[in-house]
Amino acid sequence: MKISALDHFVLTVKDVNCSIKFYTQILGMKEISFEDGRKAVKFGSMKINFHQLGKEVKPNALNATVGSADICLLTTTLLEDVLKECKAKNVDVISDIVKRTGAKGAINSIYLRDPDGNLIEISQYV
User: Which InterPro entries does this entry report, sorted A to Z (predicted)?
Assistant: First the structure.
């Protein structure tokens, strides 16, 4: 077997509409609906599906819960500009720009949290 890419992942959330608002208005993703009105956000060639806590679509994660994800997203926007935009939108950024390691090498990152407390790392390759 050879896995080639990530297509989508699922976040279990307290309030799907609140999550959609955060991921579209703060992170600039596009809201989409699919299969019987399910909600997701799309960015690049990937998407994030949302499961409402207690109403998860089967099959689902064995221990589905809110706030347990740690996600790294890549941006083409300068991180300094991302910081400015987050501050302008009253988003609590929990780190300055820090050096990390991504899948392909050195990255610079900032961290924030979504409405459910998931850790969102926004990064650029050095």
Answer: Glyas_Bleomycin-R_OHBP_Dase, Glyas_Fos-R_dOase_dom, GlyoxalaseI/FosfomycinResist, VOC_core
In Å, the largest CA–CA distance within the chain is 46
User: What mean pLDDT do residues 3-20 have?
Assistant: 96
- Cβ of 111: how many Cβ atoms within 10 Å? 18
- Asked whether the predicted pLDDT for residue 36 surpasses 90, the reply is no
User: What value does the mean pLDDT take over residues 110-120?
Assistant: 98
User: For 36, how many CA atoms within 13 A lie in the half-sphere containing its CB?
Assistant: 1
**C-beta neighbour count of 5 within 10 angstroms:** 6
Report which of 37, 43, 33, 53 is spatially closest to residue 9, judged by C-alpha positions.
43
The C-alpha atoms of residue 22 and residue 28 are separated, in whole angstroms, by 9
Report, in angstroms and rounded to the nearest whole number, the Rg of the chain calculated over CA atoms.
15
d(C-alpha 105, C-alpha 88), whole Å = 30
Three-state DSSP state, 85: helix
What pLDDT shows up at residue 49? 98
* Encoded tokens for 35: 């299969």
CA distance 111 to 93: 6
